[in-house]
Design goal:
The protein is built from 3 helices and no strands. It is mostly helical.
Length: 57
């Protein structure tokens, strides 16, 4: 069934393997959005200190 390694699976073979539980399933989405990355880098402890110093000056 899988003799030729340089040729991909047929649709029928892929469906058969998927039904047996060999499909790719994303378990947990840990990727951060662009907005999350910007928030983490802008709202930091040091930026708060600099903001307070700016207001006092």
């Amino acid at each position: 069934m899988y003799e030729e390694y340089n040729v991909g699976l047929t649709t029928a073979e892929a469906k058969e393997l998927y039904q047996k539980g060999y499909g790719n399933v994303q378990i947990d989405n840990t990727a951060k959005t662009t907005a999350d990355i910007i928030k983490e880098n802008v709202f930091t402890y040091f930026n708060l200190i600099f903001l307070i110093m700016d207001v006092l000056i």
